[in-house]
Write a structure and sequence with these properties.
Elements lengths: L11 E5 L6 H7 L5 E4 L5 H11 L3 E5 L8 H14 L3 E6 L1 H14 L3 E5 L10 E6 L2 E6 L7 E5 L8 H19 L6 H23 L4 H20 L4 H13 L3 H17 L5 H10 L7 H12 L14 H11 L10 H13 L5
Parallel strand pairs: 1-8, 2-3, 2-4, 4-5, 5-8
Antiparallel strand pairs: 6-7
Helix pairs in contact: 3-4, 5-6, 5-7, 5-9, 6-7, 6-10, 8-9, 8-12, 9-11, 9-13, 12-13
The structure holds nicotinamide-adenine-dinucleotide (NAD).
Nicotinamide-adenine-dinucleotide (NAD) binds next to helix 4, strand 6 and helix 9.
Length: 356
């Protein structure tokens, strides 16, 4: 085994069903007596339910969380926090709302309790991506990591079956890239393989019955593990491409991950530096017969996934444009970034072809 460094995140996590009732005692532990509750306009009723449980400590709701954390929204939320004199933040929602909570918390130093309602995993990372004048800038800082996380499986009943599948695969993508990260370690490998196994077994069950409580439980547990992978080690080609394409063509986050994952994996699968990772991945993916690309394609076939970048709204001229940007900014990846191969990867994803 190689030498490695493992940094454990110092935050409290409560996991289970009906755990929302533990919110008052969690707020006590982080010493928050007057909080601003954050949500998107689509999740106001969930935020109201949260505020009702908190009682007098729930001072106000700010319901303008938006994808990619635009700074003008953060500034508006800052004014609301100041105006209400809050001493804590509660974010309830997907990655967009968690992002706003992180942006507020890093600017104010206020404790941030996070209640995720998708499988995106942002609650487990010290990473914040913010958009200003159409440009997304991402930074990593230990102070960005939420102070505490409350996972309640019951909050996922309202997540549509499509979003459940797409968000679940978004989580799997974190674990896939963690396995071949240049700063990978055996602890994160364990979390990654367990996260992939758990989600691969839960997602088909949830597609058949979105109200299956045991499968919801499994999926959230798997997503938590995958989120830890995202927060702990460096991501590579797949995440960089999602970031580049999402920003250039304003593509939806989870769906972009779904389209690109098999193709990014196929690009990296033959890299000698990723051989060990690919063997672990193949063992974690059902029906892989030892080949991770076959395994991911089988999962997509089982889930009936038929997305393409073209279908998400990316123009065909974007294939070359995106390739230029992807090649221009080098980053760590098990296989060197070769123009022809990267262009073909993006073209296949654009056309919705099967990865190979
Ligand atoms: P999202 O937060 O944008 O949510 C999508 C939509 O689904 C929103 O309208 C939301 O209100 C709704 N929704 C969420 N949970 C729901 C539920 N349980 N029931 C009903 N509706 C629900 O989507 P996302 O994929 O979770 O997050 C995407 C954003 O998060 C992107 O901006 C991405 O960059 C960011 N992100 C950041 C990190 C990080 O570590 N910094 C990690 C993952 C994602």
């Amino acid at each position: 085994m190689d030498n490695f460094e493992y940094v454990s995140a110092p935050h409290r996590v409560v996991f289970g069903r009906g755990t929302l009732q533990e919110l008052p005692s969690m707020l006590e532990k982080i010493k928050a007596k007057a909080v601003l509750v954050l949500c998107t306009p689509q999740q106001i009723s969930t935020a109201e339910a949260v505020k009702a449980i908190i009682g007098d400590a729930g001072v106000s709701i700010f319901s303008e969380a938006t994808m990619h954390t635009p700074t003008h929204i953060t500034e508006k939320a800052m004014l609301a926090a100041k105006d209400k004199g809050v001493d804590g933040i509660v974010s309830v929602g997907g990655g967009s709302t968690v992002g706003l909570g992180k942006a507020l918390s890093i600017r104010t130093g206020l404790p941030h309790l996070c209640i995720p309602t998708t499988y995106a995993g942002s609650e487990m990372t010290p990473i914040l991506g913010e958009t200003e004048n159409g440009r997304k800038v991402t930074r990593r800082d230990p102070r960005i990591l939420p102070t505490a996380v409350l996972y309640d499986v019951d909050l996922f009943k309202t997540l549509s079956v499509d979003m459940t599948v797409y968000s679940g695969i978004n989580a799997i993508a974190h674990a896939v890239e963690a396995l071949y990260a240049t700063n990978k370690n055996p602890i994160i490998d364990l979390l990654a393989c367990e996260g992939i196994r758990t989600l691969c077994s839960a997602l088909p069950l949830l597609q058949a019955d979105g109200n299956d409580p045991a499968a919801r439980h499994q999926a959230l547990y798997g997503a938590w593990l995958c989120g830890m992978c995202l927060g702990a080690v460096d991501m590579a080609l797949h995440h960089k491409l999602c970031h580049t394409l999402g920003g250039m063509f304003n593509l939806p986050h989870a769906e972009t991950h779904v389209v690109l994952l098999p193709h990014a994996l196929a690009y990296n699968a033959s890299a000698p530096a990723a051989a060990g990772a690919m063997a672990k991945l193949a063992a974690a993916l059902p029906d892989s017969a030892g080949d991770p690309v076959r395994g991911i394609n089988a999962l997509y076939q089982r889930l009936g996934i038929r997305l393409s970048l073209q279908g998400l709204g990316m123009p065909e001229t974007g294939v070359d444009e995106a390739c230029d940007v992807a090649i221009a900014n080098p980053y760590k990846n098990p296989r060197a970034l070769e123009r022809e191969g990267i262009r073909e990867l993006i073209r296949r994803a654009w056309a919705g072809e099967t990865a190979k």
